[in-house]
Specification:
This protein has about 300 residues and is mostly helical. It has one domain (about 5-290). It is about 75% helix and about 0% strand. It is built from 13 helices and no strands. It has helices at about 5-25, 30-55, 60-85, 90-100, 100-115, 120-140, 150-170, 180-195, 210-240, 240-245, 250-260, 270-285, 295-300. The radius of gyration is 19 Å and the shape is globular. The model is unreliable at about 295-300 (pLDDT under 50).
Length: about 300
Amino acid sequence: MSRVNVILFVLLSLIWGSSYTFIKVAVDGLTPAQLVLARVFLGAVVLLTVLRVTRGSLPRSAAVWGHTAITAILGMIAPFLLLAWGEQRTSAAMAGVLIAATPLFTLAAVTAALPAERATWRKGIGFLVGFIGVVLVIGPWSTSGGSLGGQLAVLGAAACYAAQTVYVRKMLAQKGIPPLVSATSQVLMATLLQLIVTPFFPWKTPHPTWGIGLSVLLLGVVGTGLAYLVYFRLIGDMGAANASAVNYLVPVTAVLISLVTLQESITWNMIVGTVVVLAALAFAENRVRLGKPTEQARAR
């Protein structure tokens, strides 16, 4: 990676890692539905502004907007609501390490749903070991990580992200939509859909403080808006597979940020479980190899 890409890579891990702390702070004064609406609205403002400056245009096809609505539900509305609800019942650190299961779920989902992705023994072993890591993170023998319901909600968010990846690859990847246009369309559609459904969720009068207001602002403008721009820049420079490796750093930054800002407790099983999950994923994705390199590999 170039020096600029290294900086952007680390920056993105910090942005996404800090989002769990921002959520934890924000849900003290807002309901999950209120938080998600504010988050996607602010993100839409940022991305629409950039799209306008770059003279891009939104899709005109009704079919594309229909697919976009589904990706917005799977990739934003459902996981954002689950994360906000889950963090009312578990710690930001726990949410950050559990979301590390997203690439693992994605690996299983694309293997099951996409014919081009063959099932291999590496993927099978990686998934089984990764599942053990998730159980270690949750630590069913302990109550220090919050309620099981909150933890399962976070895992549900990870599953939603995995389902979105499969849907995008099957329905939108071949349509040639520029990444910025796709991101802007999804956030805009998420804002519209969340505006419609928010009145049907539990409501309470918001109790904003400086901390809550700043968390919502950073979560929307930086975590939902600017993060997309950084991510798609990395995809353009490095490719999607390499850019997605940022998921290896996000749990680390999430734990460190929550530890420093919220003084949350970190247990041994959270650390060991996260290492097991990431190691299993690296093995399944063929990022690490067993045994001696072949002659062909040496030639490279």
